[in-house]
Amino acid sequence: MDALGPIAVVAGGGRLPAQVIRAAELSGREVITIAIKGEADASLSAFDPVVLGWGQIGKLFDTIHQAGAKEVVLIGSVTRRPDFTSIVGDLGTMRRLPRILSALVGGDDSLLVRVMGIFEREGLRVIGAHELAPELLASGGVMAGPYPDDQDNLAVKLGVEAVRMLGALDIGQAAIAVGTRVVAVEGAEGTDAMLVRCRDLRENGRVRAKGRAGVLVKCAKPDQDLRVDLPTVGPDTVRRAQAAQLKGIAVEAGRVLISDREETLAVCNELGIFLLGIEARAKEPTP
């Protein structure tokens, strides 16, 4: 990675894009911030972003090329997949329209790979947020909170197996296990909504356990391209886990991002919820 050249950051929602941009600037990179209209967080205003809608793909690439950037990071949440009416726009968009429409077909993984392909055909190198800000990656072992007990470790193991199956089907990146039972899996609604659903299940007695019990497990998909859509947890994840009466959160070390890391660890310690970095990938068989 060219440490001196400018880099473009195309930012969706959440606070993570601002943290990645700040890390890039601290490393000496010039950053061109492009905020997706209707998605990007207000925290990006500190970086004087160019705000572009889905119908301004031509202007997006013009902005990147005019700045001399050869690398781009795609980071942040996108709550709605754009439809045809939202992407009809400038001439540059219309010229690329067949490739854009092709990218909108398929599951999340195929969508992201095709979107990266559009950038690569423009002569740009797509790099992962973790390459700019490796300090955001989860480390191994207990990062905050109490140590998990044997029952917690059993739930972690079960949750990992569930997430592997979800990832293989391109469904989600997270599951919740209580004891020997998987009580919730992540779908299109995302992790936060799954945690709210789990809270409701505990409150209405559909999931019965004495006191706090269970673990949220979050991992990258088995064959995930780490340049985009790395799973993320942050302080709000911890608070929702507390509301769902969970004991802890287990994330894949080196393949999950910790947003607002200091705050996240502090909230874990305050609420008594463990944050555990685990090895979740299946080991290759010995030849």
TrEMBL record:
- What residue stretches are annotated with the LpxI C-terminal domain? 141-275
* Origin superkingdom: Bacteria
Q: Which GO terms describe its molecular function?
A: nucleotidyltransferase activity
Question: Which ranges carry the LpxI N-terminal domain?
Answer: 7-136
Q: Which UniProt keywords apply?
A: Nucleotidyltransferase, Transferase
> Which InterPro entries does the record match to this protein?
LpxI, LpxI_C, LpxI_C_sf, LpxI_N
Membrane-crossing residues?
A: none
Q: What is this protein called?
A: Phosphatidate cytidylyltransferase
Q: Which organism is it from?
A: Pseudovibrio exalbescens
